[in-house]
Amino acid sequence: MKYVTHTINLETTEPVHIVDITEEVKKALTASCLKQGQMTIISQHTTAFVNINEYEPRLMDDMVTFLKRQVPRDGNYAHNIAPIDGRDNAHSHLMGLFMNSSETIPFNQTGLMLGQWQSIFFIELDGPRPKRSILLHMAGE
Questions:
Q1: C-beta separation of 38 from 138 below 8 A
Q2: Between β-strands 37-43 and 129-140, what pairing exists: parallel, antiparallel or unpaired?
Q3: How far apart are CA 12 and CA 19, in angstroms?
Q4: NCBIfam families, from UniProt (predicted)?
Q5: Using CA atoms, how far apart are residues 51 and 105, in angstroms rounded to an integer?
Q6: Phi-psi region of 33 (alpha: psi -120 to 50; beta: other; left: phi over 0)
Q7: Angle at 51 between CA 46 and CA 57, to 5 degrees
Q8: DSSP letters of 6-71?
Q9: Which of 29, 30, 94, 123 has CA atoms 20 to 30 A from the CA of 86?
Q10: pLDDT digits (tens, 9 = 90+) for 22-56
Q11: pLDDT tens digits, one per residue of 115-138
């Protein structure tokens, strides 16, 4: 068994920003030279997450609208009284309760074993942020 790690760094430009990282993940898998195994993709942040869903522009707009409706930014949140980093971002942490910080995807010689309509997204909930990172950990042969 061989292990390979890779980091994807990116910048987000919106308060809630959904970034399709599928192609970057595929490139990292190809560069690993692994032929079969599994990849874990993990956000290294508490207000940004990883998700597998369909890439369709109107659906992505719907996702952002859904999240903002569920947890409004101007809610009365205790975390915002004295935030650790000076950001009133309780809503971002609370939106994250609907998501996973990581996803694990099997792969074989043909690539990631995603369904026909599945894409991999990095979902920023506390943007904009100049530097965000996603760790890819691949295990295989």
A1: yes
A2: antiparallel
A3: 8
A4: TIGR00149_YjbQ
A5: 11
A6: left
A7: 115
A8: EEEEEEE-SSSEEEE-HHHHHHHHHHHT--SEEEEEEESSSSEEEEEEE--HHHHHHHHHHHHHHS
A9: 123
A10: 999 999 999 999 999 999 999 999 999 999 999 99
A11: 999 999 999 999 999 999 999 999
Paired tokens of 21:
């990282």
Nearest to 116 by CA among 53, 41, 24, 59: 53
pLDDT one-digit tens code per residue, 66-121: 999 999 999 999 999 988 888 899 999 999 999 999 999 999 999 999 999 999 99
Place of tokens 């691949």: 138
3-class SS of residue 117: coil
Kindly report the backbone phi and psi dihedral angles of residue 26, in degrees, each rounded to the nearest multiple of 5, phi listed first.
-60, -40
